[in-house]
Amino acid sequence: MASLRVLITGCLLVFCLRAPAQTAPTTNGLYAAFNTSKGTFYCNLRYDLTPRTVANFIGLAQGSKSWLDYPKAGLATNRPFYTNLLWHRVISNFVIQTGSPNGLGTDDPGYTFLNEISPSLNHNSAGILAMANAGGTNSNGAQFYLTLSPQPSLNGSYTVFGSVVSGLNVVTNLGIVATDANNKPLTNIYLNSVSILRIGTAASNFNINAVSPALPVPRFKTNLLTHAAGRYSINWTQSTNSEYRLLYGSDLKNWTSAYLGAYSGAYVDYFVTNAPRTFFTTIESHID
């Protein structure tokens, strides 16, 4: 009987340590379920106020919008984007951030687009879902963050497009992990996947391909390698309101990307000197 008591006590302890199950939304709306290392949480997606941002997020999550896989020569893919990504930035009582395939926060889906600020949506509580950017209004792509507390100083600079409706404790648990000096978790925590839930006629009818203006589509840019004054450079004709990335690799299988911004050329001496490369290609993304 004593052994049985011990067994029962142990089972109860294990049960208590399990993360509580989160309740999926049931009211009409458009939602995202975020499956993470710490459990699942749900956010509403405000397609009524930020349709373009939500359309981009859904397209990437479902694999219905193409993005560029930089390590694979920047080839377009429709693989679901938000799969097995690190939460690469965690700042206690501030935000948790993910959406970077390289896990460093230095990449994007191959394009950027403008902020979509709604005065009705702000950083007034924990669990606010918003797009991360590079500090400019034209630098939204795939990275996003969730607040861990009210952050009014972020209002007007970042696109809020949703908020947590179930599982805020999961977000809180993600936000208390130990980190290094660069705010990267010491033990990897993952965004395993994102799934989309549509409840009701309006949410079901939201068409991500019908937003206006349409989301930007990246493309390869024709360039020319030149040599002058002992230096090699790659040059191309600059398009209005466009940004560029240079992809380089020593073979045709593994590539690295370098963000160039709006410049219409780049010296390649640096890449060759610091890490011998052979192949280069350029990607153009129109910003609108």
In terms of quaternary structure, the protein is single chain
Q: Sheet with the most strands?
A: 9 strands, antiparallel
Looking at CATH, the homologous superfamily of the largest domain is Cyclophilin-like
CATH fold-level assignment of the largest domain? Cyclophilin
Query: Structural class, from secondary structure content?
Result: alpha+beta
Number of β-strand runs: 18
- Average pLDDT: 88
Description of the structure:
The protein has 288 residues and is an alpha+beta fold. The protein folds into 2 domains: 185 residues, Cyclophilin-like (Cyclophilin, Beta Barrel), CATH 2.40.100; 68 residues, Immunoglobulin-like, CATH 2.60.40. The protein is 16% helix and 32% strand. It has 5 helices and 18 strands. The strands form 4 sheets. It has a 9-stranded antiparallel sheet. The longest helix is centred in the first third of the chain and has 16 residues. The N terminus is likely disordered.
Task: Name its key features.
disordered N terminus; Cyclophilin; 32% strand; 9-stranded antiparallel β-sheet; 288 residues; Immunoglobulin-like
Helices and strands, with pairings:
Layout lengths: L1 H16 L11 E8 L2 E7 L5 H12 L4 E3 L5 E3 L7 E2 L2 E3 L3 E4 L29 E4 L12 E4 L12 E7 L1 H7 L15 E10 L1 H5 L13 E3 L2 E5 L2 E5 L6 E8 L6 E6 L3 E3 L1 H6 L4 E8 L2
Antiparallel strand pairs: 1-2, 1-11, 2-10, 3-4, 5-11, 6-7, 7-9, 8-9, 8-10, 12-18, 13-14, 14-17, 15-16, 15-18
Q: Outline of this structure?
A:
The protein is built from five helices and 18 strands. It has helices at residues 2-17, 51-62, 168-174, 201-205, 269-274; strands at residues 29-36, 39-45, 67-69, 75-77, 85-86, 89-91, 95-98, 128-131, 144-147, 160-166, 190-199, 219-221, 224-228, 231-235, 242-249, 256-261, 265-267, 279-286.
